[in-house]
């Protein structure tokens, strides 16, 4: 019982203070809008070449999305939900591979740009290529944040926050339920 209470308290503190820190950073004069991103260079071989990825338009009805996705995935991808910190599949994943959109399968992020932000969600400093994601201002819940969406199906992936210490000075804070990971050598 003590472990459950400790886990719940830790999650609450991480979510509360993680969001507060991001909110405080976003309320300053340096609100991030369309920040320039850098292309990701993988080591010797990248099974996903950004210049060969085609971004098409995926348009489905609400009923089609609900049939394709489970209730939790639908809530994250189509209703811009957020999963709990430290209780999701990929926050601590250290395997090499590619993270694909959970809605349409577009390759989005490489494990080469994944890092441990300590926030409890998978964090990346850049997508495979900037054309693969869209940015949109999100002013819900009294905060001003930058939402990150799949460029192909407009599925909600998470948010982008300023973050010092990584090459782009950005943290793409994503939901595991918005991603499908495929382990591969890169």
Give the proportion of residues in helices: 10-25%
Q: Whole-Å distance between the termini?
A: 42 Å
Please count the beta strands (DSSP E, at least 2 residues each).
9
Shape: globular
What order do the strands of the largest sheet run in, or round the barrel if closed? Answer: 3-4-8-7-6-5
What is the annotated CATH architecture?
Beta Complex
Q: What's the CATH topology label?
A: Metal Binding Protein, Guanine Nucleotide Exchange Factor, Chain A
Derived from helix and strand composition plus strand pairing, the structural class reads: alpha+beta
Number of helices: 3
Contiguous low-pLDDT stretches (5 residues minimum) are: 1-46
H/E element order: HHHEEEEEEEEE
What do the pLDDT scores average to?
Answer: 80
Strand content: 15-25%
For the record, the count of structural domains works out to 1
The major pleated sheet works out as: 6 strands, antiparallel
Write up this protein:
The chain is α+β, with helices and mostly antiparallel strands and 186 residues long. The protein has one domain: Metal Binding Protein, Guanine Nucleotide Exchange Factor, Chain A, CATH 2.170.150.20. It is built from 3 helices and 9 strands; from the N terminus they run αααβββββββββ. The strands form 2 sheets. Strands 3-4-8-7-6-5 form a 6-stranded antiparallel β-sheet. Strands 2-1-9 form a 3-stranded antiparallel β-sheet, with no helix packed on it.
């Amino acid at each position: 019982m003590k472990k459950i209470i400790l886990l719940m308290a830790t999650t609450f503190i991480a979510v509360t203070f993680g969001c507060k820190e991001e909110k405080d950073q976003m309320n300053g004069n340096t609100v991030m809008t369309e920040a320039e991103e850098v292309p990701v260079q993988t080591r010797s071989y990248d099974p996903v070449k950004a210049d060969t990825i085609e971004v098409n338009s995926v348009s489905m009805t609400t009923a089609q999305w609900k049939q394709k996705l489970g209730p939790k995935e639908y809530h994250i991808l189509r209703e811009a939900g957020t999963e709990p910190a430290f209780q999701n599949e990929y926050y601590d994943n250290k395997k090499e591979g590619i993270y694909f959109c959970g809605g349409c399968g577009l390759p989005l992020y490489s494990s080469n740009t994944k890092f441990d932000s300590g926030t409890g969600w998978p964090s990346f400093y850049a997508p495979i290529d900037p054309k693969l994601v869209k940015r949109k201002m999100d002013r819900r819940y009294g905060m001003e944040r930058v939402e990150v969406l799949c460029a192909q199906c407009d599925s909600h992936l998470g948010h982008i926050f300023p973050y010092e210490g990584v090459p782009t000075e950005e943290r793409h804070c994503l939901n595991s339920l918005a991603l499908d990971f495929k382990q591969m050598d890169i």
